[in-house]
Design goal:
By secondary structure, the protein is α+β, with helices and mostly antiparallel strands.
Amino acid sequence: MARLSRLVIPQQLHHVYQRGHDGKKVFLDNDDYLQFLRWLAEAARLFHVKIHAYVLMPDHWQLLATPDDATGLGKMMQWIGRQYVPYFNRKSGRQGSLWAGRFKATVLEAAQYLLPCMLHMEGKPQQLGLVQDALDYPWSSFAHHTGGKIDPLIVDHSIYWALGNTPFQREAAYKELMRQGLSEVQVQALIQATQKSWLLGTQGFQAEMTKLTDRRVMPSKRGRPAKRRAEEA
């Protein structure tokens, strides 16, 4: 069976994820993180993709992004790969592919999943024990969203802005959401959607997005339709 094309819908929120080959590290030191972020900022500008949140971990990275058109997201990631992979290979004395296959991406309904996905991503360093407080991790957008610094890479999403009328209100509200954490149901929904590259949203959102793409946005139902029972006389 032919592999489905990647689901990309212009002007919609996408969760993008890529892991290192065989689980190996893709960032070895601060220079690697900084160089990747520089190229990410340049590629986002070149290909008209808004970056709303990110986290760079030693063996993978994640983004929340909105592309202006159907090709910008793919072109952005291809451009970054052409810059970063040769740089990393030269520096570390290795050859070959750095990534575990092509990057994964799924469309999220922003109203339902922007904030949970931001929290899931930015909370990873603390969850995995890399830092005691997510604010102490320098390679994510958490500090930007909580007032620790202004990150020029980030274009704040309207859903984040709706958390409050002032920066202080938004930052305090977001900190409280991080304190409360996510349910296991929310976490698993995000993980499964991204791993399988299926849209994540309400039925109304699914129907709306189906009209905007030729690709299936949800898996087909398995099995034959149930036969109606004959009415008893």
